[in-house]
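Components:
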Amino acid sequence: MDDSRRSFLKKAGLSALGIGAGFPLLRASVRALQDESEQAAPLSKQWAMVIDIHKCLQPEVIKTCIEACHREHNVPDIEDPRKDIEWIRTESFEKVFADQTHPHTQESIKQLPVMILCNHCASPSCVRVCPTKATWKREQDGIVMMDMHRCIGCRYCIAACPYGARSFNWQDPRPFIQEIRPEYPTRTKGVVEKCTFCFERIAKGMVPACVEACQKLPQGAGALTFGDLADANSEVVKILREKYTIRRRPGLGTAPNVFYVI
Amino acid sequence: MLDKAFSGGKNYWGLVVFWFAIILAGMWAYAIQLSEGLIVTGLSRDVPWGFYISQFTFLVGVAASAVMVVLPYYLHHYKAFGRMVILGEFLAVSAVLMCMLFIFVDMGQPMRVLNVVLHPTLNSVMFWDMTVLFGYLILNLVIGWMTFDAERKGGEPPKWIKPLIYLSIPWAVSIHTVTAFLYSGLEARSFWMTAILAPRFLASAFASGPSLLIILALILRKFTTFDVGSEAIQKLAVIVTYAIAINVFFVAVELFTGLYSNIPHHLQHFEYLFLGLHGKGALVPWIWTSQTLIALALVLMLFPGIRKNEVLLAIICPAIIIGIWIEKGMGLIVTGFIPSPLESITEYAPTGIELTIALGVYAIGFLVLTVLYRIVVNVREGLNPS
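Structure:
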């Protein structure tokens, strides 16, 4: 073996070692970070929602829920579906649960409207990818939070979310807000936003706006149920024990905290 | 050494003015985007990344490909790359600069971009990508500058530069690997979630980057006294041939896994890209153009007779660059979003403003490249007056 080749092999070996040593380090640091936030023992509290698909079929229930949320949080009303902002919306059953439908599924079932919102996953992809911690999983209650003042608008979280739960402010949203509610901040252009399980209402001991709005409707009773998954006596845990419920795209390992009664 | 940038002929100054004109147009378009928001782009809820991120992905490859001249020259002491190596390093500098600018113009809140540094997030691949790209920029700038300056003075570069050169080799591999990890770690996007993505990025990088280097070397030879030598160009052509063949193989491997397994989540994206889905197929003509160019280029490059003809090489190399530019740019990024996780098919096309901004970024990169290469040429002419 000539000298140059030997020295090349030596150098190449050293480089490979460098990379090889880097990965365990990287993994350890990632794990350490995750242990701090969400991967450790189950949170002492984890807010969750159960959506009863059959009780959420009436257009009035759907409309009331969505409007309550969007009014509460100054969500703009933008016509173009390509550029709009949605914290909670409906999509057809076949789109939300593509893995649960097949070519022979009844057409009426395929077309059922299903309410979708942020799943506040136990292992959220968006939190994993955010380069600024502008979105994070809150330790005390498992809400996936969003800091619109820190967000740089890179949209990595939108690329990472398997549920299409996040919206980006392609433009200044303020001119599109019907009536600005001064109690809640409006957003600027260029940031991502999404449902936060109404953390500001929960702090006051209230339930999320969508849940409250549909509870008020006679036909909306039990359509949306909100509660603590870690509390064995909570309403959500009771429903999950008694009824058959599913989550969106369970195979991805994100572990959503929004459940559907079908 | 910078003073060398200020002496040049009519061609040089004409080129500089030309780049500045495009940069001005780009800045004008960016001013509009800055005040209106990213609404001026063709991006949408379903396709949140488009032309900018595609350019970024392609250019990381161009930057990484400098290693294809650095490695033979410094590790194998391949002397024929003696005059080529500085061109590769300075091309890397200009390409990384463009990468960073493409990320910057894609930001919704560019003023806050330093948040990435202020709140370092080790679990975000984007944080790592920024770190390795910045490191690579510094490495190439320092290495290129120090070695070239030493050569100008007729001495040896400082000793501490050697470890940096060796470090730059795995570092070049890392920038494109980490860039691939940006995409391949996303469980939401099955099109990208493949282990072959990083190797594929490297293969396509080592085909397109050296192709660009060949063209640049040929241009320099035609318009200046700077000649890297035919041997260097031929060696690069061989590297391009291997890399393009490996890239075709990797794409075929990827296609096989998708098509043979028949898993809809994987298949749909290929279907959209190559055939169109539910009557929508904006990328179909592009990808077939790309695949045809790459296939033709590969076949032609396999013949030494053709490869050794520099006129033909000057035609084949742009074909490779365009083919890869489509394949790993729009073909890869946009297709990853179509169909969306909710199975909707929202198509994407860049707007005029988006394209103007992108041209502006390219003009900045090529302006820097023009100036750096002018310095190289002037210094060389000073060393060997003809």
